[in-house]
Specification:
Elements lengths: L2 H20 L4 H5 L9 H20 L4 H4 L2 H5 L14 H5 L5 H20 L9 E3 L6 E2 H26 L1
Antiparallel strand pairs: 1-2
Length: 166
């Protein structure tokens, strides 16, 4: 199995989990937080999607789906288009009140861009250095595994929260 096939499978699992956690949930459940300092399902899914969109678009050298596909306007959130949610305050987390179909639609769009990029990569491409700010410098393969790991952690948190709220 080639490296891109493994990554395609992994991101496919993220897609399945996003759909499983979000589908059929009303806005109230998606925005619910067990405490004022906790994240909501909506924020967790929006954030994991923003991070994947931001990071994959950077290494693929294309515009993010969030802006290119008009998702920033559709979400209507009071954040800059470049905001990924990293470092959000509890107050900002509480501002992410959105419908399930919007979250799923945006993740689907980002997933498609991710797949299109991954399908073009040869095994040797994953050794390309994409970030020299770290020691050792970050390769494409390491960056993509990092994004997938972050996605899995956040969707796991969202799944736990869904169970807690049910």
């Amino acid at each position: 199995m080639k490296a891109n096939e493994i990554l395609i499978d992994g991101f496919g699992r993220v897609l399945e989990q996003v759909q499983e956690v979000v589908r059929g949930q009303d806005d109230k459940i998606l925005a619910a937080r067990p405490s004022d300092s906790a994240n909501s399902i909506a924020w967790l899914v929006w954030h994991l999607t923003r991070i994947q969109d931001d990071h994959v678009s950077e290494v693929a050298a294309h515009e993010q789906a969030y802006t290119a596909g008009g998702w920033h306007e559709r979400f209507g959130l009071p954040f800059d288009a470049a905001d990924t949610g990293y470092g959000h305050t509890p107050s900002q987390v509480g501002q992410v009140v959105v419908a399930a179909d919007l979250l799923i639609g945006y993740y689907d769009a980002v997933h498609q861009q991710t797949l299109e990029f991954l399908r073009l990569q040869a095994d040797s491409d994953f050794d390309r250095i994409v970030d020299t700010r770290w020691d050792p410098p970050v390769t494409l393969g390491v960056r993509l595994v990092s994004v997938m790991d972050d996605d899995m952690q956040h969707i796991g948190q969202a799944a736990y929260l869904k169970g807690l709220l049910s």
